[in-house]
Amino acid sequence: MSTDSASPRIVLVHGGFVDGSGWQGVYHLLKNDGHNVSVVQNPTLSLAGDVAATRQVIDAQEGPVILVGHSYGGVVVTEAGNHDDVVSLVYIAAFAPDKGESVNSLIADPPPGAPVPPILPPVDGFLLLDRERFPASFAGDLPVEQAEFMADSQVPWGVEALRGAVAQPAWRIKPSWYLVATEDRMIPPPTQRAMAERAGSTVVETPGSHAVYVSDPAAVAAVVAEAAAAATP
Question: Which CATH number fits the domain that encloses residue 15?
Answer without folding.
Answer: 3.40.50.1820
